[in-house]
């Protein structure tokens, strides 16, 4: 933790504990410089970080003050109660229909699955990609076949090490994005007709991959803040022949849930007892809002049951389609699956990312990205609190770029989706996050697209549509 992050974390804890309350003035920059023995630049960085998290606000010629805690006026969404039985899937047509609607650039992208392109260092990445093309070694078309570019895998292994996990480069398989990684992991440990456990709600990409492979899924309820229920999973493992679990433990899509350490350790221990592999989709791990990264599941287990899937698409290079799998005991199977499906990931893109990571700047970019996303989350939550009708519930994430809302009784998310599109606003309706098309009264909103005038106008229009449906206008 840097010095300014340490100061920000201390101040944030004082706010969280109630020592500093809404409206209280923070110590002046000059006072903190004297008391902490730091520079004015360090203090300003700390205050900027707290401001980006929505904890404090600057008042002209008055200094910094603690903001009213946003998100406290709305209750948390209720934990779901899935049917508890495995079922075949028929979701792809339904999901594709919804996804087509968010491609229109004239639509406010609250339903997008991606952050805004302007948040990423495409100019710098372009130079790395151009350099990779110039220095392309023809032999790389052979040497960079699975498991992939050696330099890139070493950089990834170092980042695992920084999070407390010893993952050798030989275990890492470069993939064409995280979606291919999920498919390869599922293929490595399942056969058509097998049962896979997923969260409820869950990211629709996992449902699509399971459907394509002819798998059945059983939905495990997930708390909107703390993630998958270990108790419910234990009951499912006792009743069903589950071959694998496909979970997001860090800032899950769509809820933003973060599985705390104690629950994560219990989950790993449970799967070890049953010898059921975990496929962890961890593409949002770098997008945390606090001073510390989320727990690394690979650091908690040593018997290779966890297949860790991630990519650079959400945190650095959208469009490059470069991801990876740390395959544990299944790494060799995953390499074979890769060789017999897509054969290889684009050689130049792998080299470009290795070049970018090797020249530094990645962590600086991530800090700026996290601050932008934390600021977007605070703005969107404020707008929802200000405009949405009584009965709305929201889950406040600690990272990622999604906000999960449970709407008042009487609101149909699919009908709301159509109404919102007619008003130039997209959203992601809850049923696309369930194998059984549950969550018909829930929506996911994206706060990763900074709007020129802020989200207030779009949220106000969306709230009016919600109020009409719920009869609370």
From TrEMBL:
Keyword Protease belongs to the record: no
Pfam families: Aminotran_1_2, GntR
Keyword Cell membrane: no
CDD domains named among the record's database cross-references: AAT_like (cd00609), WHTH_GntR (cd07377)
Boundaries of every HTH gntR-type domain copy: 1-69
SUPFAM superfamilies: PLP-dependent transferases (SSF53383), Winged helix' DNA-binding domain (SSF46785)
Keywords associated with the record: Aminotransferase, DNA-binding, Pyridoxal phosphate, Transcription, Transcription regulation, Transferase
Protein origin, superkingdom: Bacteria
GO molecular function: DNA binding; DNA-binding transcription factor activity; pyridoxal phosphate binding; transaminase activity
InterPro entries: Aminotransferase_I/II_large, HTH_trans_reg/aminotransferase, PyrdxlP-dep_Trfase, PyrdxlP-dep_Trfase_major, PyrdxlP-dep_Trfase_small, Tscrpt_reg_HTH_GntR, WH-like_DNA-bd_sf, WH_DNA-bd_sf
Protein family according to the UniProt entry: In the C-terminal section; belongs to the class-I pyridoxal-phosphate-dependent aminotransferase family.
Descriptive protein name: PLP-dependent aminotransferase family protein
């Amino acid at each position: 933790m840097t010095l300014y992050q340490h100061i920000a974390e201390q101040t944030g804890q004082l706010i969280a504990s109630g020592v500093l309350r809404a409206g209280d003035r923070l110590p002046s920059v000059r006072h903190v410089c004297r008391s902490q023995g730091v520079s004015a630049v360090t203090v300003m960085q700390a205050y900027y970080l707290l401001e980006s998290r929505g904890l404090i606000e600057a008042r002209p010629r008055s200094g910094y003050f603690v903001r009213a805690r946003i998100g406290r006026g709305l209750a948390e969404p209720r934990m779901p109660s899935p049917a508890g039985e495995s079922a075949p899937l028929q979701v792809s047509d339904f999901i594709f229909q919804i996804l087509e609607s968010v491609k229109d650039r004239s639509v406010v992208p609250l339903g997008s699955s991606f952050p805004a392109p302007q948040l990423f260092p495409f100019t710098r990445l372009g130079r790395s990609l151009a350099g990779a093309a110039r220095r392309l070694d023809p032999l790389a078309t052979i040497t960079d076949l699975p498991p992939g570019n050696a330099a890139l895998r070493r950089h990834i292994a170092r980042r695992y090490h920084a999070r407390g996990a010893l993952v050798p480069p030989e275990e890492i398989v470069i993939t064409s994005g995280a979606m291919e990684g999920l498919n390869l992991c599922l293929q490595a440990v399942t056969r058509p007709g097998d049962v896979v456990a997923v969260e409820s709600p869950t990211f629709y990409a996992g449902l699509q991959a399971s459907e394509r492979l002819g798998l059945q899924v059983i939905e495990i309820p997930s708390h909107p803040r703390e993630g998958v229920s270990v108790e419910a999973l234990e009951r499912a493992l006792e009743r069903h022949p589950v071959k694998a679990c496909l979970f997001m433990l860090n800032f899950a899509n769509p809820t933003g849930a973060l599985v705390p350490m104690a629950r994560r350790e219990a989950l790993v221990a449970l799967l070890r007892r049953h010898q059921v592999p975990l496929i962890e989709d961890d593409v949002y791990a770098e997008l945390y809002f606090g001073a510390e990264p989320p727990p690394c599941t690979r650091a908690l287990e040593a018997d290779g049951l966890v297949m860790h899937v991630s990519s650079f698409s959400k945190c650095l290079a959208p469009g490059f389609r470069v991801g990876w799998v740390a395959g544990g005991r299944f790494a060799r199977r995953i390499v074979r699956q890769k060789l017999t499906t897509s054969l290889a990931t684009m050689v130049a893109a792998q080299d470009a990312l290795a070049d970018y990571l090797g020249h530094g700047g990645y962590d600086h970019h991530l800090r700026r990205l996290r601050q932008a996303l934390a600021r977007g989350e605070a703005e969107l939550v404020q707008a929802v609190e200000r405009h949405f009708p009584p009965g709305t519930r929201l889950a406040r994430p600690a990272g990622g770029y999604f906000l999960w809302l449970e709407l008042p009784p009487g609101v149909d998310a699919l009908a709301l989706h159509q109404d919102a599109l007619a008003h130039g606003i997209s959203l992601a309706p809850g049923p696309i996050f369930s194998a059984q098309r549950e969550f018909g009264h829930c929506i996911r909103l994206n706060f990763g697209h900074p709007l020129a005038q802020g989200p207030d106008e779009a949220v106000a229009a969306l709230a009016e549509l919600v109020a009409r449906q719920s009869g609370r206008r």
